[in-house]
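Note to self: the last two entries modelled the partners one at a time, which told us nothing about the interface. This time every component goes in together.
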Amino acid sequence: MDLPNHHVSPARSAAARPVETFTRLFGSLLLFVYHCFDRVVINGYLSGLSRPGQVVHFFQKVVGEPVIGKEVLSRRTNYQKSVESFASNHGIGLEWAEPKVRKEDYVRPALRRMERAGRHGVYFILKSMEQGQTFRSAVPRFATGDPNYRILARQRSRFTHSYFYIRDVMDLMFECAARWELFNDRRNPIQIVRIKDSTKRRPRPTVLTVTEYDAILALLKEPYRTMVIVAQCLGLRVSEIAALQWDDFDFEKNLLLVQRSFVSGHVDDVKTEYSRDYVPLHESLVEILLAWSKDALTTKVGWVFASALTNKPYHPTEIQNRHIRPAACCLVECPKCGAGVGVWCRQDQLTPNGKRLQVHEERRTLAGQYASIGWHTFRHTYRSWLDETGAPMKVRQELMRHAPIQTTMNVYGQAMASSKREANGKVVGMVLKPVRASA
Ligand SMILES: [Zn+2]
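The predicted structure of the combined assembly is written out below.
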């Protein structure tokens, strides 16, 4: 590394503004080169390309594709191939990640080898089949003015993710900077790097009040209504709700075993080993579930919420977009038609299919954050209401199923089971007030 001496001025102010100093010293050596648009680039720098409208613009105006159909979206770059040849050309390990093995531990020997050799660069690549965001394209059900018009919607699907483990040159430069006492911050330096326009904070998740939840629920019809009640009483992920089967319930012990998820049409084990766990069922919720079991569609597999069209679980995103969000928009009055809170818009004419209960665009705008709530809102709300119960952190963690499972039937386990039931009961009390009041 050849650094002109006059750049090194170990002034006192250097410690106060380490990044500025660092940039002044090494800025000319830093260069980002994009060989392809991978997700790091898209999510970090071109975040616009994660929005449907921008994707349409990109394909139509930049790539020159008038119709963004399935073929366009499923067209692949040679990214996977490039990764493979990159690995073999450089003698870098490329393997599927083993489940339940910490990735960092697995690749550490390769990092050590690189450190000993005093080299930098990619030292290992792990592949992993995971969920991520993709887009799907649909032809509108009813003809529009533009025959090329396609509805582009986000969806979650599973595809191969490549994780690059890199010992980069920044590492060497920071060591050097530390030696010159220009940089003595103990944090990981990347934490203090800001990239313009890429550090927008995620908005705080919307959490519903009891009144707001009630108003939304009142506008939903079955089976969405019962699905939302389950979501709010148990804080399950929607993929877990969609995958529920009657055999998962033990109505004698009032327990539910969460063990499956349904994602993009595929049944799978739940997200993490922690998520597979028993959750307590409040008796008011049991009543509701038993009542629902009489109306529910009977399927061979025993799905709790199956669509009559497919005999399979519903697609939760559709329910979210067509029912939950419009209902949430009704938390504000409609400035267009004057429909009050908790009342659907007065529509001059039915939507073409005569089914969709739409709200006026003006109301959607006015609804702000409520217009973009989703299934996860009920989980956030559950967590928030759970916090209000004052239950110990450990109990709340277990009910969210983030923490390791207590499988042992020791005294602690027993106490935990009853604490969990008690804390959950308080939340269910908020969700199902009418039932409690009439009980
Ligand atoms: Zn309206």
